[in-house]
Amino acid sequence: MARPTASTLWLAELCPASHVLPQVRETSAGQVFGSAVHKYAELAPQVGKDEALAAIPEEMRERCGELDPALLPVGNREVPIEYDLEHGEARLLDITDRAYPNREGCVYGTIDVLQIQRQTVWDYKSGWPGPANESLQLAALGLFAARALRWDEVTVGHLRIDGERLRLDAHLLSGIELAAVHARIKSILARYDGAKSQEIPDVYPGDHCAMCPAMPACPATTAMIRQVSEAMAEESKIAAMVEADPVGAWTFLERAGDALERLRSELKRRASMAPIDLGNGKQLRILDVEKKTIDGKRGLPILRDTMPDVDALCSVSKGRLEKALGKRNASVVMQRLEAAGAVETNTEHHLRKVAAKEP
Questions:
Q1: What is the dihedral of CA 209, 212, 214, 218, to 10 degrees?
Q2: Cβ(91)–Cβ(124) under 8 Å?
Q3: Which of 56, 77, 124, 130 is the most exposed place for a label (fewest CB within 10 A)?
C-alpha cells in the first residue's frame, strides 16, 4: 500500500486501487534518464558541470551534458513539502531522499525548483509531460507552495530538457483555482481511503493500467490472465473471443501483455536475489549474457578490408560476421575491432529456466 503523492495523484484519481494493492516497481530506460537529468539539473548550478556529470551514471553523461547549466533557473532545489489536507496548511520539510514522514491526513511532494521571490514552482521533465495547465502534479505542488508561503497565487511550470534546449511551459494558478485543486485532492484521498476499507478494492481498468505498479496484483489483470489461460486450451475459444469483440480482444491483449511483462520483471527481481525453485529439478535463474555491439563508424575501415560489400549493409553484427566469414575468421576480425575501440561490450541479464544446481 502506498499513499498517493503529488506525482501519483493522477493515477489515484483514475483508480484508487492502484495505491491500495501491492505494487511492483520497475525502472525503465526512460526513468533512469529522467533520474539522471534531475540529479544533473540539481547539482550543476551548485558545483559546476563537470562535478554534476561525475555524479550521474556514465552512460547518461553525454546526453545530460548537452544542456548548459547557465540555462537552469536560479532557486531552491529539491524542496520537499507536506500538505495537511484537513486544515489546508503546508510546511517545507528538512529531509533528504524524499523520506516523507507520512503523517495521517497529509500529502507529500518535492518541488524541483522553488523560486520564492517570483512565486514560481518548476518541475523538470525529460519527455513530453503534456500541457502545464493540465498537470495535476504541478497544480498540487503549486497549492502546497502557496499554502506554505502564504501566496494568493502561484506560477507553475514544466522545464522540459530537450538536448541542449530547455523548453518552458508555465501556468498561473489563481486563488479560485487553488481552492479547486484542494477540493480535487480531497476527493482523491477520500476515494483512496474508501478503497483501503474494501477487502478487494474496486478497480477501474483503462489505458493507465500500462503505467500502474499494482498491475500484477490487480483483480482485473489476474482475471484476464486466467481467461487467456482457459482460452489457450481450445483454439476455437480464442477465435470466438476475437469474432465477438475484436476491439475488446485487442484491448485485452494490450493489458495482458503489460501485466505479463510486469510479472516477468518481478520474477526477474526475485531471481536476482536467489534462484526460484520450480520443482522437478528446475529453477528460475538470472543468466548473464555478454553482448558485443560493433561501432560502425570506428570499425568501418577494418570491415571494408574483410567484407567488400559492407557499405551496402544497414548494420553489422558478430553473427553476420560469422555467417559471412566463418567463426574463426570472424573471431580474428572481432579482435581487430576490439583493439581499435570499435566494440562495445555489455552484459544482459536474462531470466531462464535451468536445471537446479546441487546445494
A1: -10
A2: no
A3: 130
